[in-house]
Structure formats: structure tokens, C-alpha cells
Specification:
With about 70 residues, the protein is mainly alpha-helical. About 80% of the residues lie in helices and about 0% in strands. The longest helix is centred in the middle third of the chain and has 22 residues, at about 25-45. It is built from 3 helices and no strands.
């Protein structure tokens, strides 16, 4: 249960933090950076791997940021 809650929290964090910037590249960079920071915090808070959390959070944040860029 704890592991699934961590994944849900990481996903929600990634979606929330990926909304910075207007172009897909900007959003991917800011989403990736913020997602990595959030993932590291979640990893540390749950007793998991900080590096693993940062990698997962960064990947989710970058993907979410790039995929949710506004269309012109």
C-alpha cells in the first residue's frame, strides 16, 4: 500500500509541476527539473532511494511537461 501511494503522489506531483513554460521544450525542462526534485524528496521521505525517486520524478515531469504544452 505504501509503495502504491508513493507512485500516486509522484504522478500527481509530476502533473502539477509540469505546467511551467509555454513551448514543449520549456515545459519538458522545467517539468523534469521540478519532478526530479519532488521525486528525490518523496524518495527520501518514504525511505526509498533518493536517486531512484529523482530519476522517476524527472522522467515523469519531463514527459508530462512536453505532452501537456498548449497547442497553438
Amino acid at each position: 500500500m505504501r509503495n502504491s501511494m508513493t507512485w500516486v503522489a509522484a504522478g500527481m506531483l509530476a502533473m502539477t509541476l509540469a505546467a511551467c513554460g509555454e513551448r514543449p521544450g520549456e515545459r519538458a525542462l522545467t517539468g523534469g527539473g521540478l519532478g526530479a526534485a519532488g521525486g528525490a524528496v518523496i524518495g527520501a521521505a518514504t525511505g526509498g532511494s533518493v536517486v531512484g525517486g529523482a530519476l522517476i520524478g524527472g522522467g515523469l515531469g519531463a514527459a508530462t511537461g512536453a505532452l501537456t504544452a498548449p497547442r497553438r
